[in-house]
Amino acid sequence: MGKLDTYYEAWKGGDLDTGMACYADDILMISAEDGIVTDRETLYTWLKIDWLAFSLRTMKTNSVRFMDIENMVWADIVGGNEEFPLIRMSGVFLFDDQGKIRLRTSKATLQRTGDDEFISETACYESESLNRDITQRHGDHIKHRTSIPDDKLTQDYHPDAILLTEEGDVLRGHQDIRAYLAARRQHLLKVNTRIQKTNTNIGGNVALMHWQLSDDNNKHIDGSETFFYKDGMISHHFMQFHRL
Asked: Which of 38, 43, 137, 162 stands the most exposed, by the fewest C-beta atoms within 10 Å?
């Protein structure tokens, strides 16, 4: 049985009480829209609104992907309903020793019927407080990866780092991660990708970055990346994006 199965079954049926029981007592929510939430009552209210709108009682699912990596689960769900033909919810869940969710990153991409525009919401839920040191380190990393040569792309990564690509490939160590990041950067440069929007939420030792890009063909890419830091270096990096 997968770590996320109980929570996923509760979400499918809109069973909020069972879903709430999957969270650790001290979970903290950091949201771009709602600020910081530190109590379960507010978290319950937030989830109730979210589940009423996007549980499987109201949404048809096209694809569901879960991948377990150590004490984490990478999740990606794509579906739609009458109002939003495209709904994509993705994120990373981190579990404590009791199997409770103590950290969650979440991003939702919505596209309304008859509308070329899309809505994207990003949130980070964490059971630790804001870490200003990680805020600085992550800011430095984002600057580095757009300006440094290929052979330096992993200078901010732990030697045993793990990167999970959008395709679901698990890369381990500097050599494989560096090759992937270099190829990805070269592709984005080739199609003349431009940043339309970016924002980052920091909670504890985790950074959740959301971005929107466009290219020469006026194609939009909406994505997020989750970074876990250990001893000031990136230990886990999860990529999720969707071409709109």
From this structure: 38
Name the 3-class secondary structure at 50. helix
CB distance 173 to 160 below 8 Å: yes
Ordered alpha helix ranges (H), 83-160:
132-147
CA distances from 122 to 135, 137, 158, 165, 237 (A): 17, 21, 26, 19, 17
pLDDT tens across 77-104, in order? 888 877 777 788 888 899 999 999 988 8
Q: Distance (Å, rounded) from C-alpha 181 to C-alpha 78?
A: 25
pTM, 2 dp: 0.77
Torsions phi, psi of 218, nearest 5? 60, 30
How many Cα atoms within 13 Å fall on the side-chain side of residue 40? 12
The tens digit of pLDDT for each residue in 19-43 reads 999 999 888 665 545 556 667 888 8
